[in-house]
Amino acid sequence: MGTFIARRLLYSIPVLLAATILVFFGMTAVTDPISQIRLQPNVSQQTIQNIIDRKHLDEPVVVQYGFWLRDVFFNQFGNTALGDQPIWPDLSRAIGNTMQLVFVSELIAVVLAVVLGVFSAKKQYSFFDYATTTISFFGFSVPIFWFALILQALATWFFLETGFRLFYTFGQSSFAPENAFIDRIQHMVLPIVTLSYVSIATYSRYQRASMLEVLHSDYVRTARAKGVKERVVTMKHALRNALIPVVTIAALSFGAVLGGAVITETIFAWPGMGKFFIDALIRGEVYTLMAWLMVTAVAVILANLVADIVYGWLDPRIRYD
Amino acid sequence: MTDQQVRKDDEIAEAQTQAVIDSAHLEGLEIKSLTQWQLARRKFFQHKLAMTSLVILLLVFLAALFADFIAPYDFAEPDVPNRSSPPTFEGQHYFGTDKIGRDYFSRTLFGTRTSVYVAFIVASVSTVIGVIIGGVAGYYGGAIDNLLMRMTDLFLTIPFLAILLVLSAFLGAGSPVRVAFILGFLFWTGLARIVRGEFLSLREKEFVEAAKVLGASDSRIIFRHILPNTLGPIIVNATLTVAAAILVEAALSFLGFGVQPPFPALGVLIADGQDSLTTLWWLATFPGLTIVLIALCINFVGDGLRDAFDPKQRVK
C-alpha cells in the first residue's frame, strides 16, 4: 500500500506541472497583473514600476513562468502584486474553513445517497423509488444559488415569525456566542444543506443504477440460491461492488463541489475558499487567483488518490503492488 | 444458456416472426419495417412525461420569443404608482413589481429570452466543437487522441466554474453573445469524449470496413457511415447541454460575471431580488421558478430522447 501511494504521488507530479502550465499561461492569455492594477485609481507609476521589477514582468513570459513556479513551490505561492502581501496565510485560513463545509457536506451526501440509492434499487418502481427519482431530477434542475437564497429566506422568515434563531444565514460565527460549538453548527447547517443537495441528487442516481445492475448479476443469484439471507446479500454481496461507481463519481465531482462552494460561500458569507476566490476576482489579483487554482488542482488530485485507495478496499481483486 | 440453445431460440423466434408476417399477408395487410428514426420517433411520442415537458417547453420558448407582444409592460420602464406591488391580476403585474415599479412578469419573459438564447448558442457551439474534436480523435486515434484525452483530464483538475469565472471576468463578458461563446468554447469536453468513444467502436465495424474496401474516402466514411450512427447520443447531449448552460449562465450572471444589466437575464433578476428576499419575496422567486421549470422540462425531454434512441428499449 505504501509503495502504491508513493508511486501514485510520483505520477501526480507531471499532472501537477501540466496544471501549472495551464493555470499560468491560461491566465497570461486573458489578462496580466499590471492591466488589472491600472484599472484602480490612486496607484502611482512608481508603484507599478516596483511591481514590474519585483514580479519580473519585463522579462519574457517563459521566464516569468519560471519565477512564478519558484514562488509556488519554495515560497508558498509568493506575494500579491499590489500591496506585496503574502498570499498563503489568508488562503490557508480560507482552505481550513472550506474544508469544514466540504467534508461534512460530502460525508452527508455520500451516506444519504448510498442509502437512498440502495433502497430505491431494492424497491424499484415503488412509490419511494419514484419519489427519490423526482427529488433528484429537481436536484439537477434547481440552480444552487437560488436554492441557497430560498433556504436563507425561509430561515429569516422563521426567525421573524417565532423570534427564535434556529439557523444563521450569514457568516461563520456570532460575536461572543454562549456555546461556540452549537453556534458554529447553527451557522453551518444552511451552507451544508445547499452543498450536499446537488451532490445527493447525482450520487444517488449512480448508486441506484449500479445497485440495480449488481442485484441482477449471476453471483447475487447464486448467493440467494445457496440460502444466504436477503439482508446479507444486499449489504455484503451487492452493496460492496455497487459502491465502486459512486466512489468514482464522488472523486471526479470534487472539483465541481469546490465550484459549488464558490456560490454557496458567497451567498452565506462563509469566509472560505469560494468567497476568497470571488474577492480576488473582483479585485483582479491575478497571483492570488493562480494560487487558488493550484490549490484546487492539488485537492482534486488528492481526491482521486483517495478514490483509488478506496477501490482497493472495496474490491480485493484490485491489487496495488 | 449454451450457444446451441441460443441458436435454437433464435430459430424459433424467426419462425414465429415469419408466421406473423405470413398471416398478415394472408389478411391482405402489409408489414412495414421501421427505420431507426421512425422507431425513435415513435418511442419518444409514447413517452408521456417527455412529451408533456416538450409541450410546456415550447410554450415557454414561444412566450419568450414573442415577449414583445405578450409582455404587458416594458422590461425597464417603471410603473411608478404600483411600486413594490405583490403579484396581482388586476394591474397585470402577475409576478409583482420591484421597488421602482418595474413589472417582473415582463422582466422574467425578457430574461427568459436572453437566457434561452444564450443556452442555444452554447449548445450549438459546443456540439460542433465536440463532434469535430471527438470525431477526429476517435477516427484517427494516435497522438491527436492522446492529446485530447490528456487535455480533458487536465480540465477536470480545475473547477469548471472557476475557469468560467476567470474567463468571463477578464474577457469582459456582459453581453449575452460574449457569455454564450465563452461558455460554448468550454462546454464541449463531455461531448468530445462521448463522440470519441462511439467513433472508436464504430470504426472497427464490418460496414465501415466494407466501405473502406469499396474505396470510400475518409470524409465519406465519417459523414455518411459513422456520424449518422452517433446522432442519438449527440442529440441527447446537446439537449442536456441547453439545461446545463441555462443553470451555469444564471449562476455566472447572479455572481455578476455573466450577462450584466441592462440586458435582462434570469440570473440578473434573481440577484436584483436578493436584497429583499423576505419583504419582496416574489422578485427572486418567479425568475428562479422559471429556471427550474425550463431545466426540469429539458432534463425530462433529454431522458425521453435517451430512451427513444436506446435500441434495447422496445416500442410498447
How many beta-strand segments of chain B?
0
CATH architecture of the largest domain in chain B: Orthogonal Bundle
Tally of separate helices of chain B: 13
| Count of discrete domains of chain B | 2
Q: Report the order of strands and helices of chain A.
A: HHHHHHHHHHHHH
Helix content of chain B: over 70%
Structural class call of chain B reads mainly alpha
Assembly status: heterodimer
In the CATH scheme, the class of the largest domain in chain B would be Mainly Alpha
| Strand segment count of chain A | 0
Q: What is the end-to-end distance of chain B?
A: 27 Å
What is the global morphology of chain A? globular
What profile does the largest beta sheet of chain A have? none
Proportion of strand residues of chain B: under 5%
**Global outline of chain B:** flat
Low-confidence stretches of chain B: none
Poorly predicted segments of chain A: none
Give a quick account of the main beta sheet of chain B: strands, pairing sense, barrel closure. none
How would you describe the overall organization of this protein?
The complex is a heterodimer of chains A (321) and B (316). Chain A has 321 residues and is mainly α. Chain A has 13 helices and no strands. Chain A has helices at 2-30, 33-38, 45-54, 61-74, 88-122, 127-141, 144-162, 180-215, 218-225, 230-252, 254-268, 273-283, 286-314. The radius of gyration of chain A is 24 Å and the shape is globular. The model of chain A has no long low-confidence stretch (mean pLDDT 87). Chain B has helices at 3-26, 36-46, 48-65, 67-70, 104-140, 142-156, 160-170, 176-184, 189-202, 206-213, 218-255, 266-273, 282-309. Chain B has two domains: 1-32; 36-309, MetI-like (MetI-like fold), CATH 1.10.3720. Chain B contains 13 helices and no strands. In chain B, helix 3 (48-65) crosses helix 13. Chain B is an all-alpha fold. The chains are: A mainly alpha (321), B mainly alpha (316). The A-B interface holds A 15, 18-19, 22-23, 26-27, 30-31, 137-138, 140-146, 149-150, 152-153, 156-157, 160, 252, 255-256, 258-260, 262-263, 266, 277-278, 281, 284, 289, 292-293, 296-297, 300-301 and B 150, 153-154, 156-163, 165-167, 169-171, 243, 247, 250-251, 254-255, 257, 267, 270, 274, 277-278, 281, 284-285, 288, 291-292, 295-296, 299-300.
